[in-house]
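Duplicate of #3305? Posting structure anyway:
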């Protein structure tokens, strides 16, 4: 199977999503309650707008803590669009919902993953994605990337199909390290995603080329 790393953008801001989508840079979107708050919009409306812009999976998170209400919220979220991916917390109720939703053919994303064992449970529940939070582990002086490496090894040991979605990405270095380890997806804030193209020597080199080109007096085409 051809292996391609996917880039998701971690935002519910429609302008940011549109800009990156137009650049052909993104394969999907992840949202969460904090990002919905930041967008200042209604969850159903903003999620619908995002889904109409982006072809790939758009993660929308349930906010219920118990299985029955998670399923009720899922019924609502899943109706928004075909490309909705139901984001569930890594709890027993979340895992139970994940298993049932997977069997029904829904895409699922198990979120707030902080240990390899949690990721293992998500894979056993048939999750489409599991989201280990890199930055938040780094925040408490643990090594977020080590977790990605552990999950990669475990999933490869058993051929689990669940994709590792490296989340809580804070730096361009996180993106590089996740790629080196073989995370299937990184979900990145728009500003960090835009930083990936930046290097001062690229800017300086362009400046020199353009100045020299002007001196030739030529035009292409
Ligand atoms: O989508 C969830 C995750 O990416 C959150 O990141 O920076 O709030 O830890 P952060």
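Output from current build:
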């Amino acid at each position: 199977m051809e292996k391609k790393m996917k880039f998701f953008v971690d935002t519910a801001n429609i302008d940011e999503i549109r800009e990156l989508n137009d650049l052909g840079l993104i394969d999907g979107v992840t949202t969460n309650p904090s990002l919905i708050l930041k967008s200042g919009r209604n969850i159903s409306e903003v999620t619908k707008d995002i889904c109409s812009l982006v072809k790939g999976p758009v993660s929308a998170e349930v906010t219920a803590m118990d299985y029955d209400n998670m399923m009720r919220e899922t019924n609502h979220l899943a109706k928004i669009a075909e490309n909705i991916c139901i984001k569930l917390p890594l709890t027993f109720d979340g895992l139970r919902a994940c298993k049932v939703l997977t069997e029904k053919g829904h895409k699922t994303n198990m979120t707030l993953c902080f240990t390899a064992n949690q990721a293992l449970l998500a894979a056993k529940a048939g999750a489409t994605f599991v989201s280990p939070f890199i930055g938040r582990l780094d925040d408490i002086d643990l090594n977020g990337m080590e977790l990605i490496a552990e999950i990669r090894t475990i999933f490869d040991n058993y051929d689990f199909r669940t994709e590792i979605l490296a989340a809580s990405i804070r730096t361009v270095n996180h993106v590089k390290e996740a790629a080196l380890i073989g995370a299937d997806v990184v979900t990145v804030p728009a500003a960090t995603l835009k930083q990936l193209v930046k290097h001062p020597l690229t800017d300086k080199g362009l400046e020199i080329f353009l100045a020299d080109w002007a001196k030739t007096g030529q035009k292409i085409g």
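Confirmed duplicate; merging threads. The pocket of SN-glycerol-3-phosphate is lined by residues 10, 30, 32, 133, 135-136, 167-168, 170, 187 (CB under 6 Å). The chain has a mean pLDDT of 97.
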